[in-house]
Amino acid sequence: MNIIDTHCDALLKLQMAKRRTGQALDFSNSEQLDTHFQRLQQGNVKAQFFAIFIHPDVPSDEKWQHALEQMDLFYTEIIGKQPAMKHIKNWQDFDHLKEGEIGAVLTLEGADAFGNDLMKLRHLYRLGVLSIGLTWNNANLCADGAGEPRGGGLTLLGREVIRLNNENKIFTDVSHLSVKSFWDTIELADYPIASHSNARSLCDHPRNLDDEQIKAMFVQNGLIDVVFCPQFINKGSDRATIPDLLRHVDHLCALGGADHIGIGSDFDGITDHVDGLGDASEFPNLINELQKHYSEEEVEGFAYRNFLQHRPGMA
Q1: What is the CATH number of domain 3-310?
Q2: How would you write the pLDDT of the chain (315 residues) with one tens digit per residue?
C-alpha cells in the first residue's frame, strides 16, 4: 500500500554531514538516513516530504544560508542523483507520478529562515516549498512556538505569512505552534495541517494537540498526521509500540477525524523509534497492524488517500 509521509529531517542530516566532512551522505543507501531511497522503496513510500529546518542556535544572519544549503542538497542529492525521485512542485504533480516514482516535497519548519523578508518567502514558494510551519519550538518574528514559556500568539508578520500561504495554496503547519498561536492560525489559515502531531489527551506533551484543537482542525478541513516519536506517544517514555501509536489513531477517529488522519513519521528527526518502525522500510508493519482494526478503505485513507483528498485546491 502506498504511503505519503508529511515530515522527515533528512535534509538536516545531509547538511550536517557535508559541513563536517565536505561530503553529503549518500541518499541512495546511507545507513545514517532513516529515509534513504532504498528504504523509501522498500516501505512503499509514494511521496516523502523533506523539511528545511534551521536550528535555533544558528545566528540570525546565517539562517538563510543554512536554508539554501539544505535546498541545494535536495536538488543535488535527492532529486539530482535519484531519477525515480520526482520533485512535487505543485499539488497536481501528485496525480502524474508513475509506477516506481517517488514524489519529493519541500517544506519549511520554522520561519526563522526568512526572518521578516517576504521576498525570501516568495523565493521559497518559487523553489517548490508547499508547506510552511511558522515556528519550531521557540519564538520567532512570526509567532511563539510550543516551547516558548510566555505562550504568545501570532504577530502581524505571522498573519501576513498565513495570508500569503492562503494566496499561494500552501499548507500552514500548526505542529510546533503554541496554543495561542494555534488558535490565531486556525482562524486565518485556509489550508491547516499538523504534519507530525498526536493527541494530547493520551500523551500530555506540548507538541501534541488537545481535543478542542483536534476538532477545530477537522472543522477547518485540516489534516493531522500521526508522528512516530515515542515521547509524543507515551508520556515520559522513550519506548512505544505500534499498538501504542494506534491508540492515537483510534482517538482521532473517535473525535470524527477518520477522513483527516495521515502519517508524519519525523524520521531522521527522532533518535528513539517505535518498535517495528525504525526507518521508512518498515512502514508495512504499520499498515499490517492497521488492517487488523480498520477497513481497507480506512487504512488507505490513513496511508495516502486522505492527504490527496485534502491537499490545497481539491475542495
Answers
A1: 3.20.20.140
A2: 999 999 999 999 999 999 999 999 999 999 999 999 999 999 999 999 999 999 999 999 999 999 999 999 999 999 999 999 999 999 999 999 999 999 999 999 999 999 999 999 999 999 999 999 999 999 999 999 999 999 999 999 999 999 999 999 999 999 999 999 999 999 999 999 999 999 999 999 999 999 999 999 999 999 999 999 999 999 999 999 999 999 999 999 999 999 999 999 999 999 999 999 999 999 999 999 999 999 999 999 999 999 999 999 875
Q: Where are the domains of the chain?
A: 3-310
CA-to-CA distance for 128 and 33, rounded, in angstroms? 23
**Per-residue buried b or exposed e for 274-294, using 16+ beta carbons within 10 Å of the residue's own CB:** bebbebbbbbebbbebbeeeb
pTM to 2 decimals? 0.98
d(CA 183, CA 185): 5
User: Any residues with CB less than 8 A from the CB of 66 and at least 6 apart, and which?
Assistant: 15, 54, 58, 113
* Residues 47, 225: Cα–Cα separation, whole Å: 14
